[in-house]
């Protein structure tokens, strides 16, 4: 049983390192990293945003916006300012890829 738990933890750790490395290579190869802006007042209408339960340092966001890629930035605005997040991993739902779910990490 302990071996299985260790294997699971190791697999999660390696997957996280893989995504960080892939995204950093993608981000370095881009001419410009884009920042997409969202208003927190529009949550549940235009996008969903929630903490990722299995990992406290990541958040999960689902939205419909063309062009968002791994390595880009998401800025969530409220009345006091904004918080920036880094797109660590992204999965697209359809073709063209304008609907997506992304793992975000605070910037």
Characterization of this structure:
By secondary structure, this protein is an alpha+beta fold. It contains one helix and six strands, in the order H-E-E-E-E-E-E. The chain has one helix spanning 2-29, and strands spanning 35-39, 47-51, 59-64, 73-78, 81-92, 99-106. Strands 1-4-5-6-3-2 form a six-stranded mixed β-sheet. The longest helix is centred in the N-terminal third of the chain and has 28 residues, at 2-29. The N and C termini lie far apart (37 Å). The relative contact order is 0.19. The mean pLDDT is 79.
Strand-pairing-aware structural class = alpha+beta
The end-to-end distance, rounded to whole angstroms, is 37 Å
Q: Classify the helix fraction into a percent range.
A: 25-40%
The biggest sheet, with number of strands, parallel, antiparallel or mixed sense and barrel status, is: 6 strands, mixed
Q: Give the beta-strand count.
A: 6
Give the topology string: H per helix, E per strand: HEEEEEE
Number of helices: 1
Binned strand content? 35-45%
Report the mean per-residue pLDDT as an integer: 79
Strand order of the largest sheet: 1-4-5-6-3-2
- Low-confidence residue ranges: none
Condensed summary:
This protein is an alpha+beta fold and 107 residues long.
Topology:
Layout: H1 2-29, E1 35-39, E2 47-51, E3 59-64, E4 73-78, E5 81-92, E6 99-106
Parallel strand pairs: 1-4
Antiparallel strand pairs: 2-3, 3-6, 4-5, 5-6
């Amino acid at each position: 049983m302990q071996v299985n738990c260790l294997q699971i933890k190791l697999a999660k750790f390696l997957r996280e390192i893989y995504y960080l490395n892939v995204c950093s290579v993608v981000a370095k190869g881009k001419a410009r990293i884009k920042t997409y802006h969202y208003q927190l007042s529009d949550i549940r209408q235009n996008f969903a945003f929630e903490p990722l339960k299995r990992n406290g340092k990541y958040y999960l966001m689902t939205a419909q916006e063309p062009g968002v890629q791994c390595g880009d930035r998401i800025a969530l605005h409220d009345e006091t300012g904004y918080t920036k997040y880094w797109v660590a991993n992204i999965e697209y739902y359809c073709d063209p890829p304008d609907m997506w779910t992304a793992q975000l990490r605070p910037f």
